[in-house]
Design goal:
Number of strands: 4
Strand content: over 45%
Mean pLDDT: 92
Structural class: alpha+beta
Low-confidence stretches: none
Shape: globular
């Protein structure tokens, strides 16, 4: 969520369980951003980032860098 705030992405919804979490937001250009985190093992999680319908590699990598910085 901090990554969204730092990149001016409006948080639309969140959902979570013990094993996974999903955050959905929108960029200022109205692109949908979906981040999914899933527990892969003890103290290990996998993260999936999707921007728009066809993806935006540059923005996805920027979001990942912000998430990594905030860990």
């Amino acid at each position: 969520v901090k990554a969204f705030a730092e990149l001016n992405i409006a948080k639309i919804s969140t959902a979570s369980s013990e094993l996974e979490a999903t955050i959905i937001g929108r960029t200022t250009a109205d692109k949908k951003v979906t981040i999914k985190s899933k527990l892969s093992g003890e103290n290990i999680s996998s993260i999936s980032i999707r921007v728009g319908t066809f993806g935006d590699k540059e923005l996805s990598e920027g979001i990942f860098a912000k998430i990594k910085k905030n860990l």
